[in-house]
Amino acid sequence: MLEALAVPQKWNLMFLRHRSGPVYLWYEIAHNRFLRKTVDDFGQPGMDVQDIVVDDPAELLWRLRALHGLKNTLGKRIVAVGGSSGWGQGGRNAPQRARELWKLEIVDVSYDELGKRIQQARQDAALQKRCAKEADDYLGGKGTTLKTDRGFVHRAFVLTEVFKELMQSAQTNAITINNCMGTIMPISETTACLPLSLLNDNDYMAFCESDFVVVPSGILLHYISGKPVFLNDPTYPYKNIVTLAHCTAPRKLDGKNQEDALILTHFESDYGAAPKVEMRIGQTLTNLIPDFARCSVR
C-alpha cells in the first residue's frame, strides 16, 4: 500500500512515530524494507532518508513549506516590463533557463504599453486624487522621513497602481522591471523603487532589473517563508559590515511590522523616490545566492 501511494510522480513524505506507546513497526523497518527493499541499495523511487520524519512535527513542517514553495514557483507567471534579462555575462541565458528549469511564464510588457497606461492614469482625476492622499498619508506615517521632492512620491503611488493593473491583467501577483535605472524614469517621471517596495509590503512579488538569475529564487523564498522578499546586491564585506545595495526593500520585513525609512532619491541617478529601510539591529535575514548556470540556490 505504501509503495502504491509513494509514486515518484508525487512529492512524498513519511511520518513515523517512535514515542507512540507500543513500538510502531515502521519505525524499525522503514529504512531496510521500504527504502532499501531488503538489499543494500536504495530502491524506492522518489524517496530517500531526507523524506522520513520521526515524531517531530517541526521537521515535517519545514519540508511541507519547502514543497509549498516549489509547487507555487514552478510555472509561476510574472510580468516583465521592458522584457526579461539577466545580469552580466553569466546571466545572458537566464530568462531561458528560468523558463526551462522553473517553468516560469514570463509575460512581456513593452515600455510603449506602460507609457500608455501611465497617461491614462494621469487623466483619471479620481485616481490622481486618491494616490496623492495615499502618498501624503504614507509620508505622514510614523518613522517616515522625506528627503526628496514630494511630487516624486505622488507619482510613485500612481505608478504602483499601474503596476497593479498590469498584474491584474496577467492574473498574477509578480512583476519585475527591466532598465529600471533609466528607461522608466522619463516615462513615469519618478523611479520604480518606491512602487516595488510598496508592492512587496502588500503580498506582491516585485523585483527590479528583470534579472532572471535572481527572480526564481526570490519567488521560491517568498512562498517558503510567507514573508516579503527583495533583490539586493551585497557590497564587498569588511569588518562584519555588508551593505545591501538596491532600493526595493519592503518596510514590513517580518510581514507585519513597519520599519523606519528615509525616502531618498535613487542613488545612481539622484532622481525619484527610493526607500532606505532602517533595519533594526538583530533583524534576521535569509540571503539566497543563486548561481548563473542553473538560476538555482547554492
SSE order: HEHEHEHEHHEHEHHEHEEEE
**Total E-strand runs:** 11
Task: Please tell me the total number of domains.
Answer: 2
Number of helices: 10
Helix amount, in percent? 25-40%
Q: Work out the strand percent.
A: 5-15%
Concise structural overview:
The protein has 298 residues and is α/β, with parallel strands linked by helices. It has helices spanning 2-5, 25-35, 57-73, 94-101, 111-122, 125-139, 150-170, 184-188, 193-200, 215-225; strands at residues 14-16, 52-54, 77-81, 105-109, 144-146, 174-177, 205-208, 233-234, 244-245, 261-266, 271-277.
Description:
With 298 residues, this protein is of the alpha/beta class. It folds into 2 domains: 2-55, no CATH class; 71-277, L-fucose Isomerase, Chain A, domain 2. The protein has 10 helices and 11 strands. The protein has helices at 2-5, 25-35, 57-73, 94-101, 111-122, 125-139, 150-170, 184-188, 193-200, 215-225, and strands spanning 14-16, 52-54, 77-81, 105-109, 144-146, 174-177, 205-208, 233-234, 244-245, 261-266, 271-277. The strands form 4 sheets. The chain has a 4-stranded parallel β-sheet with strand order 4-3-6-7, sandwiched between helices. It has a 3-stranded mixed β-sheet with strand order 5-10-11. Helix 4 links the parallel strand 3 (77-81) and strand 4 (105-109). Helix 6 (125-139) packs across helix 7 and helix 7 packs across helix 9 (193-200). The longest helix has 21 residues, at 150-170. The radius of gyration is 23 Å and the shape is elongated. 32% of the residues are buried. The model has no long low-confidence stretch (mean pLDDT 93).
